[in-house]
Amino acid sequence: MAEQFTVEHEDGAGHGRYFIRLSGDLEAEMTYRKIGTDVIAIDHTYTPPEFRGNNIAFLMLSAGIADARQKGLRIKPLCSYAIAQFQRHKEWADLLA
């Protein structure tokens, strides 16, 4: 049976992150900063090497996409992972800042 991962979200005044708690006190995370009132810039995505290949980064990005749609935000992808995923998922084009 595949391991289940839970995406959590922390939102601060000018920045925030989506993260997944992993075994051994490890975390995967995707961080963003707020640009104005309706844009977030995804600036960093990290999954520990021993957990790569489990779709973890995509789970965090998907949570960010869903939240942006719900809140009426646009996204500026800055990290290489987010840029690549936005290029692959044309259905997200309406969210690009």
Compact overview of the structure:
This protein is α+β, with helices and mostly antiparallel strands. The chain is 26% helix and 33% strand.
Features:
five-stranded mixed sheet, 97 residues, alpha+beta, single chain, globular, Aminopeptidase
Which helices and strands occur, and which strands form pairs?
Blueprint: E1 8-11, E2 15-21, E3 27-35, E4 39-46, H1 56-71, E5 74-77, H2 80-88
Describe the structure.
26% of the residues lie in helices and 33% in strands. By secondary structure, the chain is α+β, with helices and mostly antiparallel strands. It has one domain (8-90): Aminopeptidase (3-Layer(aba) Sandwich). It has a 5-stranded mixed sheet with strand order 1-2-3-4-5. The longest helix is centred in the middle third of the chain and has 16 residues, at 56-71. The chain is globular.
Please count the helical segments: 2
Please compute the radius of gyration using only Cα atoms: 13 Å
Q: What's the β-strand tally?
A: 5
What is the number of independent domains?
1
Oligomer: single chain
| CATH class category name | Alpha Beta
Share in β-strands = 25-35%
Write down the CATH topology: Aminopeptidase
Major β-sheet profile: 5 strands, mixed
Do you know the CATH architecture? 3-Layer(aba) Sandwich
Task: Give the strand order of the largest sheet, numbering strands 1, 2, ... along the chain.
Answer: 1-2-3-4-5
SS class: alpha+beta
Q: What do the pLDDT scores average to?
A: 95
Helix content: 25-40%
Q: Helix and strand string, N-terminal first? A: EEEEHEH
